[in-house]
Structures
1.
Amino acid sequence: MDRVAARARAGKATIYRRWPSKLAMVMDAINAFAEERMPTPDTGSLRLDIIEFLTSFHEAIRGDRGRIIAELISEMPRNPDLRDALRGGLWTQREASSHAIVEHAIARGELRPDVDRAVLMEIGTAIILQRILLTGEPVDRAFLESIVDDIVIRYAA
């Protein structure tokens, strides 16, 4: 709270009037972040839709946001309120977008109706999170395309 007050050039009392606790402040930030809707691409191609989805996902969590998300994720096992806020905000919004991509692909005949939708869309985001939060390896367009072509599309088949 001290750092937030310093950055805002406000007193701690001002910060505590708006947010009675660190958790309240973090939950407000999570909700604001979740409101930045991830687009739901509909290019007419499952491959291109997933590449665009992963590109948007990567842009949303890279840099300082990735570091902050890593810290929040590490706190989730100890803080059920934080866990619920992250799942209810960030992940629910991401799932809605990925669900629409899969449904469009099924309607176009690109996917079989019995495909495990969750696994299909978690593969790419999990690999991106691994790189951003753990290894620090670069995530560029060529890497995203290789995830889609070599892993996601093969899983879908």
Note: Residues 34 and 90 are 5 Å apart (CA to CA).
2.
Amino acid sequence: MKTILVLCTGNSARSILGEAILNQRGAGRIIAYSAGSKPKGVPHPGALRQLATKGIDPSAFRSKSWDEFAAQSAPAIDIAITVCGNAAGEACPLFIGAPIRGHWGLPDPADVTGSDAEVDAAFNETWRLLELRVRALLALPFDTMEPAELRAALAAIGRMEGAA
């Protein structure tokens, strides 16, 4: 099984949703985690509502630092995917396993203000765009691909609809 770390700055919205979708859709092939460079401390309420809407227990998710995955006791990470522009440009710590990196930049639904319905619509759209990317990844024989080939595939997936 491949381990995937989904990274964003705050680890409160996109990366949390990415972790959930990868674990849900990739069961048996993937173990996914998420983290942030400057974690907010708690997942965004819109992310928690989105998880619940999709039948995923939101209580298992927390906002955490990517430093947890650089520790000696951390699981080896095969693939690290950034989902926001800030995390893509930041210097990532050295992760155990020297992961292949990809960038799937998406607009931040946590930036949307307004009613719960407006916020939830933004989180639903982010879910849809992340799910498209996860399906594209799962369609690949990523467990047997050469690193350069996988990097190129991750980059192509990152340019799909809705890329920021």
Note: The longest strand covers residues 2-8.
3.
Amino acid sequence: MSGPRPGPPAREEYAVWRLATTRWSDDDVYGHMNNARYFDLIDTAVNAHLAEATGVDIRRLDAVGVVAEVGCRYFREMGYPRPVDLGLVVDRVGTSSVTYRVGLFQGDPAGEGATAAAEGRFVHVYVDNTGAGRDVRPLPEAVRDAVTPLLRDTRRA
């Protein structure tokens, strides 16, 4: 039997930030952001950081990251028309994989936005991108250099 579910993470647990806008179409018939949009934002936070931090077209590297795992824990509703702050941190850098956490925050950072409305877990596994198949490959050095500074020992139970 597991213990109580950990509460929402705080802003200080994340290393880098990005701002995302919300759109009318992000909300579903229940009046809050559709779960598929959370996954779009999580994917965007990771890949936009990689593209900016490496300074290269990450789609053209000899090894590219494919999603091996993605999940999201929800703590409170989010929705249009409020922007979303995306915090990114790395929990693990392996030989051929990276494990990220992405916090989604909405609202005043000194108020309700001090803790995450949701948190995603995202695992990239690097595979061959040279046309020789999709065998697992080591992380490209440009990726390793971009994610290592985000490594934090803030994993939550």
Note: Residues 98 and 124 are 5 Å apart (CA to CA).
4.
Amino acid sequence: MTGDQPGSPQTRPGLVRTLLDRFGHLVRELSKFATVGGIAFLIDFAFFNYLTTVRDVEQVTAKTISTVIAASVAFVGNRFWTWRHRKRSNPAREYALFFFFNGVGLGIAVACLAISRYGLGSIWPGVFQTPLADNIASFIVGTGLGTLFRFWSYRRFVFVEAGIPPVPEAAHDRPPGA
């Protein structure tokens, strides 16, 4: 046996290498994006709880403050780490688009919660109008879909890729008219 069969041990490193060569940059971006998002989540969580328990700030006000701080940290992390290799445009434009797409991502999470609680909950209230269902719809489904949307939109619209260099004109092998 030569090892040329699909799935044989000798071809797997080549397949993995090929996949990493093709999608490695995307995997690196996704892991950096997830790391920045995790840090932003912890900042949001910590500031919210600090403001509500230690400083006695009203919950909605505290959530607004903690979200703006966390989103600002996420913007800096994504701009200067996740997508540092991308060209920089107007920082005010990037920041405004970043917050706009954050709002859309938040809307996705809220829509998932509303569909679960009020749509499906009107049919099966014992299942979909529970704290567990609310947490699954909001934090797992909603945050998951919102995060996918944010990754795509930041990558596509906020931190845009530099233009593709022009392709040089091909050299002709034969003299003209031959």
Note: The two ends are 49 Å apart (CA to CA).
